[in-house]
Design goal:
By secondary structure, the protein is of the alpha+beta class. It contains twelve helices and 16 strands.
Length: 401
């Protein structure tokens, strides 16, 4: 039997462990990536059979050119799987599957994992709790929304990833000004009720429409707050079996069932509102960013990238089950640093299992069987990192969506 051939799309550098595991499982691995990364990215070349570079504008590839290029490659290479390693590659991967008739998530389902408007509409149809929202399209509907839902509001791009491009709008005049600035691009945005509360995430492995692994965590200062207002990004696992954790896992099951994820991995975010409600924020068919994969691996022993590769190898035709997870707790801290190469050697507790290696950044993961120990270390480190490294003090008010 010929080995499976994986075509991995990565407009940004990520997914190293996916490609390593796919190669370890006997697959051939082709990588399509951005030409602008040719001399920058440190890909695991020992696990890649060939790399092809696409001309890009801000990491974006021309859709028609990419279809033609991959169709040309398919003349001599039988492609069995198309895998998007980054959120921005999901739509291109779906287009390639549709064009080449390769099994996997098609363009309609992909919308539910890329388009913030589509996923909200689908969640609402399924009876899930979603903050009130409106498509920034029809003037009358937008006006009715602003009369019914008081500010502040959140202006969100439909197709960006994470917190990129999100604005908090505090008045109708501000919303009108933002609308005018968008011009003909306004239909690519939505407006949502601002919900104060704690932002949480669930990271999952799905196979055969079943969630085989999921773990619930809570941000300290979530990506939106950190990206827009500075500060220290943190997240930590919630207590297993606790009411908050179980509520998140149940909500996550409802989201992934509604969106139609058959197999793969997912990072889904919710907000525990100050009103006591649990709201769906967004989901994705990818491994969570911001080193959340390393957090999950520290606590459970499961490498989400590697397990995703195994899921794709199995492809719905072979049995798959993740290994039994460990039951440790872990927390992640990441901050910008004043120093180009910050020295974290004074942080020497044995619970530290990972340190970030990036110029002008400091990051650590702590792990322990005891949740209280993890929480205590995280609190200590946030205060120490503020003094030792951080460039901007974290915001003091409540984290938001």
């Amino acid at each position: 039997m010929d080995p499976l051939t994986f075509l991995c799309l990565a407009s940004y550098e990520k997914g190293h462990d996916f490609m390593r595991e796919a190669k370890r499982q006997g697959a051939r691995v082709f990588l399509i990536t951005s030409l602008s990364l040719r001399d920058k990215a440190q890909w695991p070349r020992e696990s890649i059979d060939d790399i092809f570079y696409m001309p890009d504008q801000d990491k974006t590839w021309n859709r028609n050119d990419t279809l033609l290029a991959i169709s040309h490659l398919a003349r001599t290479q039988a492609i069995d799987r198309v895998v998007a390693l980054d959120d921005f590659d999901l739509e291109m991967a779906a287009s390639l599957r549709e064009h080449l008739r390769i099994p996997g998530m098609g363009e309609t389902t992909t919308r539910y994992f890329r388009d913030k408007l589509a996923m909200r509409m689908k969640a609402m149809e399924a009876g899930l709790h979603v903050p009130e929202f409106v498509h920034l399209l029809n003037d009358a509907k937008v006006a009715e929304f602003t009369r019914r839902v008081p500010p502040p509001w959140v202006l969100k791009p439909r197709g960006m990833a994470g917190a990129i491009g999100i604005q908090v709008v505090h008045s109708l005049d501000d919303l009108r000004a933002a609308d005018r600035a968008l011009g003909d691009r306004r239909s690519f945005f939505l407006v949502e009720r601002f919900v104060p509360g704690d932002v949480c995430h669930v990271d999952s492995i799905v196979y055969g429409n079943r969630i085989l692994f999921a773990v619930a965590s809570q941000y300290g200062y979530p990506p939106l707050d950190v990206s827009q207002r500075g500060g220290i990004f943190t997240t930590r696992l919630l207590e297993r079996g606790s009411a908050p954790s179980e509520a998140l896992l149940a909500a996550n099951q409802g989201v992934l069932a509604a969106m139609g994820l058959v197999r793969g991995v997912s990072h889904t975010e919710f907000i525990k509102g100050d009103d006591g409600e649990l709201y769906f924020l967004e989901t994705s068919a990818r491994v969570g960013g911001a080193h959340i994969a390393e957090l999950v691996e520290a606590a459970t022993g499961l490498n989400l990238w590697g397990e995703w590769a195994k899921v794709e190898i199995a492809g719905g035709n072979l049995p798959y089950a993740p290994p039994p997870p460990a039951n440790d707790y872990a927390a992640l801290l990441v901050s910008l640093a004043r120093q180009e190469h910050p020295d974290t050697s004074a942080y020497n507790d044995p619970e530290i299992v990972w340190r970030m290696q990036m110029p002008h950044h400091v990051g650590m993961i702590v792990k322990s069987p005891h949740r209280e120990r993890v929480a205590g270390l995280l609190d200590q480190y946030v205060e120490r990192v503020k003094k030792d490294f951080a460039t901007v003090a974290p915001p003091r008010d409540k984290p938001t969506n």
